[in-house]
From TrEMBL:
Pathway participation: Amino-acid biosynthesis; L-methionine biosynthesis via de novo pathway; L-homoserine from L-aspartate: step 2/3; Amino-acid biosynthesis; L-threonine biosynthesis; L-threonine from L-aspartate: step 2/5
Region (Disordered): 1-25
Active site: residue positions: 175, 288
GO molecular function, one term: NAD binding
Species, as recorded: Tetracentron sinense (Spur-leaf)
Protein EC: 1.2.1.11
Domain Semialdehyde dehydrogenase NAD-binding as annotated: residue spans: 45-160
Protein name: aspartate-semialdehyde dehydrogenase
């Protein structure tokens, strides 16, 4: 695992890496400096808000992996991180404290520092003429803000142009919504989804680097017979599952579940889509899984569905019934593609009008940083 915070050590059960913060971060690309030569004059200037967080660090990894052209990057974070050094693509940067003057001369700002920061500083960046790609939930349901998954609805941001003289804001959907709709949308285009039932199995990464560290710590504590440390969540996470920690609303759904409902309707531009969700935290370090049941207006058999998904951009099919091999969070960790398997006819629905699928996607990657940078690529 490359992105969140820095010094890596291996998880006692999975062998996966977890992270301890340090004052020096190093993110190195795949010798992309040569690719960038000659691009600097026309390339955009970037700023990353929340660069020291899990998604902020992943922004850097994705920028490097995709050789995103830039002439400069401003690394922004809280006062606590200001003054620390960060090495990216063999260049040393000093992390700056976010303030009202942080966006002077910046073309694209990538925000991942929480909704309150986005609400305070997003409008300031827009006033400076920047295009903001916001990873928080602050503006997702604003009818004037496009909510974009590039493989699904890129046209929603067609009116936004870089260096047009006026700033703009584009919202990144919730991670669970992105992972779900990457698989459901190609099928929706073919047969029209009437109703969707989603059950999620969400990793620690969705709650940030601190939650990943706590899962690692709790696992070691429980194995040693100690009382687990519960600072991020109110209950034991290791060797346990529980309802997603988002606040529960008066209708009994939590905020994470309602994001899936509302964001799907907005992205598909259809307020009549029936969506219900149950979101669960599972003791997995990174990458979310989702069980999705679909009811279609038109018949769709599983063979056709499998062919549609094999051709879908950003999707890989892992559906080997003979060997019982289907998507797992470990297989998609640090991967760009969303994996789909368990593709089968829903026996409770008549006439091939229903399907069940199982989906796994890296929450930090496609569920956050990659999607945001794909949005930025459309702007180029």
């Amino acid at each position: 695992m490359r992105a969140p915070a820095v010094s890596q050590h291996h998880h006692p059960l999975t062998g996966g890496a977890t992270f301890a913060p340090s004052s020096k971060t190093s993110i190195r690309g795949r010798s992309n400096l040569a690719i960038r030569m000659g691009l600097k004059e026309d390339a955009p200037s970037l700023a990353i808000v929340g660069v020291t967080g899990a998604v902020g660090q992943e922004f850097l990894s994705v920028l490097s992996d995709r050789a995103f052209p830039y002439q400069s990057i401003r690394m922004l974070a809280s006062k606590r991180s200001a003054g620390k050094h960060l090495t990216f693509e063999d260049k040393d940067y000093i992390i700056e404290e976010l303030n009202q003057d942080s966006f002077n001369g910046i073309d694209i700002v990538l925000f991942s520092a929480g909704g309150s920061i986005s609400k305070e500083f997003g409008p300031i960046a827009i006033d400076h003429g920047s295009v903001v790609v916001d990873n928080s939930s602050a503006f997702r349901m604003d009818e004037n803000v496009p909510l974009v998954i590039p493989e699904v609805n890129p046209d929603a941001m067609a009116h936004i142009k870089l260096r047009s003289g006026k700033g703009a804001l584009i919202a990144n959907p919730n991670c669970s919504t992105i992972i779900c709709l990457m698989a459901a949308t190609p099928l929706h285009r073919h047969a029209k989804v009437m109703r969707m039932v989603v059950s999620t199995y969400q990793a620690a990464s969705g709650a940030g680097a601190a939650a990943m560290e706590e899962l690692d710590l709790q696992t070691r504590e429980v194995l040693q017979g100690k009382q687990p440390t519960c600072k991020i969540f109110k209950q034991q996470y290791a060797f346990n599952i529980f309802s997603h920690n988002a606040p529960v609303l008066s209708n009994g759904y939590n905020e994470e579940e309602m994001k899936l409902v509302k964001e799907t309707r907005k992205i598909w531009n259809d307020m009549n889509i029936k969506v219900t969700a149950t979101c669960i935290r599972v003791p997995v370090m990174r990458a979310h899984a989702e069980s999705i049941n679909l009811q279609f207006e038109k018949p769709l058999d599983e063979s056709t569905a499998r062919d549609i998904l094999k051709r879908a951009a950003g999707v890989v099919v892992i559906d080997d019934r003979a060997s019982n091999h289907f998507p797992t969070p470990l297989e998609v960790s640090n991967k760009d593609d969303v994996a789909v398997g368990r593709i089968r006819q829903d026996l409770s629905q008549d006439g091939n009008h229903g399907l069940d699928i199982f989906v796994c996607g890296d929450q930090i990657r496609k569920g956050a940083a990659l999607n945001a940078i794909q949005i930025a690529e459309i702007l180029l």
